[in-house]
UniProtKB/TrEMBL annotation:
It is found in: Cell membrane. Pfam families: ABC_membrane, ABC_tran. This is ABC transporter ATP-binding protein. Keywords: ATP-binding, Cell membrane, Membrane, Nucleotide-binding, Transmembrane, Transmembrane helix, Transport. The chain crosses the membrane at residues 21-43, 63-84, 141-160, 166-186, 247-270, 290-308. It comes from Vallitalea guaymasensis.
Length: 589
């Protein structure tokens, strides 16, 4: 991936959410603290009971009191546990929800360049796997870290003040080893986890591409090759996962070993102190219990390092996407314009795609007045769609090269510009939704009559009413249940219903027969008498009635005029007419 010069490190995306939910985190943390404080009382009570029993004059009512207190503490612990779980885990889900919305909202604002550089599968992995790791970090990760630290501090304090400073110091000698190990392992896990997430993203890309391109895979009988390639990607993902697991598998037993060492020391040294009478038996029992209470934080440290490392690695991947700046935005010079009439002037437009050394458009100049139709023809790859990309501002054209109603296109609010253009793209993408919702996609309010009218003008109404669910028929992913021609015509209806000031048809009737094409073009002509229409085509019949026709070759306008004048010029246009007529005659035979 090329570095983006416009990239600007944003302030941590999580800070906003920590600020927003500070109350939730505070309540959660206070409840956690309460649970820990209550837990600390359990060894005190057990110690009291042990000492009481050992004294020989312990009364049953005392014992009952202590047991009831224990029960009460247990009940309170359960209540406060519920509160912290609800506040902290619930909040982590809220943050995940917010981040996912932020991510999607941000993606919607990014330019085509970004999507050309990032694969869908990779972006999907960000929205699923990475977000999951971030949620684990802000929920269980934060919680366990706080819990482990608080419990550790409180337990050690209790050990020192209630029992013995010496015994405590001896018991906690091995514990710093865990902290040192944590730093070392944390760093390694983070690096390996990043690799693991990238391997998963790569695998997602592959699955997504294979499902989208299933027809091509089958048609070229490439199933076995694709399965083999997938196996390799899957194996890479497995290996990267194993590298993380191995590290974690070493880390956990090491932490347990250190804790075990601590317990062994306490049993030995503490037992010796009890025998000497330096501490009571109750103290010894309580101390052992305190030490056992430290086992959980020690294990939790390991988990925390793991979860936090995963979360931080994912956060950095996630942040990279959020730091991408939308490039196509309203500039400061944008004018207050509510609508567009449709006079287009293109003046010496030269453009090359970012990173391409070639001129995809070279000195293009053409004028289309409101109400006129411009036809564009040219060999494949000559720059026709690139010109449309400029008009839609999918990429920014140089200033002073395209004017609509005498206003530089760069100064027209992006929303107004795109609302004013009805675009029928070459790939006729349809959403997995009903036909009526696909047609009404670009309009805020509409009615069944308008939808039907647009479908009739696009000559697809008769096909639609033959489906059992008519306009409520759901089209499959990318409209696979429809024929190419039906998809094209639904896309045309989607643009027509907007009744746009400028309509652009990019090779949009190529999949329909010439009769249907003629009917559609007649409807468009009738409906759009006083509006601007741009038609790109390979078939001369599609554009021959246009008011103006330009022929583009290698990014340059090489011929322009009306159909008749272009035929007279006997250039590329004339050759295309000749060739297509010959093909027609051959078809007839
Ligand atoms: N996003 C892009 N980044 C870099 N180069 C691109 C991009 N899109 C198109 N091109 C290049 O720009 C040139 C013009 O492409 P364009 O899609 O405008 O051609 P076209 O005339 O519409 O072709 P067709 O008739 O096949 O649709 C081609 O050489 C193409 O490879």
């Amino acid at each position: 991936m090329k570095p983006n010069p416009k990239k600007n490190k944003s302030q941590g995306v999580l800070i906003k959410y920590f600020k927003l939910y500070k109350f939730h985190f505070l309540v959660g943390f206070l409840s956690l603290l309460t649970v820990d404080l209550f837990q600390l009382q359990i060894p005190v009570i057990t110690g009291n009971i042990t000492d009481g029993l050992q004294s020989g004059n312990y009364e049953f009512s005392n014992l009952l009191n202590q047991v009831l207190t224990l029960l009460l503490i247990g009940l309170l612990i359960a209540c406060f546990r519920f509160i912290w779980r609800y506040f902290i885990f619930g909040t982590s889900r809220k943050i995940e929800y917010g981040l996912r919305n932020d991510f999607f909202g941000h993606l919607e604002k990014l330019s085509l360049r970004f999507f050309n550089e990032h694969k869908t599968g990779d972006l999907m992995a960000h929205a699923t796997n990475d977000l999951n790791a971030i949620r684990m970090m802000v929920g269980p990760g934060v919680l366990m870290s706080l819990d482990a630290i608080t419990l550790c501090v409180l337990v050690i304090y209790q050990m020192i003040t209630k029992i013995s400073l010496n015994l405590t110091l001896v018991a906690i000698i091995p514990l710093p080893l865990i902290a040192i190990g944590g730093i070392f392992f944390g760093r390694a896990i983070r690096a390996r986890f990043k690799d693991k997430q990238e391997a998963f993203a790569h695998m997602s890309e592959m699955v997504q591409e294979n499902i989208s391109g299933v027809q091509v895979v089958k048609a070229f009988v490439q199933e076995t090759k694709e399965i083999k390639a997938f196996n390799e990607t899957n194996k890479n993902n497995y290996d990267k996962n194993m590298r993380v697991i191995k590290l974690f598998a070493i880390m956990n037993p090491l932490a347990m070993l250190v804790t075990g060492l601590s317990i062994a020391i306490v049993l030995g040294y503490g037992g010796y102190m009890t025998m000497l009478g330096n501490i009571t038996l109750g103290d010894f029992v309580a101390f052992t219990q305190y030490l056992l209470m430290l086992v959980w934080p020690m294990i939790a440290f390991g988990w925390c390092i793991n979860i936090m490392s995963h979360g931080l690695a994912s956060l950095s991947r996630f942040q990279n996407i959020l730091d991408e700046k939308p490039e196509i935005i309203d500039e400061e010079t944008v004018k207050q314009i509510d609508s567009i009439k449709g006079d287009i002037v293109i003046d010496n437009l030269t453009f090359n795609y970012p990173g391409s050394g070639l001129k995809e458009l070279d000195n293009i100049s053409v004028t289309v007045n409101k109400g006129e139709t411009l036809g564009i023809v040219g060999r494949t790859g000559s720059g026709k769609t690139t010109l449309v990309n400029m008009l839609l501002r999918m990429y920014n054209p140089p200033r002073g090269t395209i004017f609509i109603d005498d206003v530089d296109i760069m100064d027209i609010p992006l929303k107004v510009l795109r609302h004013s253009i009805g675009y029928v793209p070459q790939d006729n993408f349809l959403f997995s939704d009903t036909i009526s919702r696909n047609i009404a996609f670009g309009v805020i309010e509409t009615s069944d009559e308008y939808i039907e009218c647009a479908a009739k003008n696009a000559n697809v109404h008769d096909n639609i009413i033959e489906f059992s669910n008519k306009y409520a028929t759901v089209v499959g992913e990318r409209g696979v249940t429809l024929s190419g021609g039906q998809k094209q015509r639904i896309s045309i209806a989607r643009a027509l219903i907007k009744d746009p000031a400028i309509m652009i048809l990019d090779d949009s009737v190529s999949a329909v027969d010439t009769n249907t094409e003629e009917q559609i073009l007649n409807h468009i002509k009738e409906e759009r008498k006083d509006k601007t229409t741009i038609i790109i085509a390979h078939r001369i019949s599609t554009i021959q009635n246009s008011d103006k026709i330009i022929v583009i070759d290698e990014g340059k306008i090489i011929e322009s005029g009306t159909h008749d004048s272009l035929v007279e010029q006997k250039g590329l246009y004339y050759n295309m007419v000749e060739k297509q007529q010959l093909e027609k005659e051959l078809e007839k035979e």
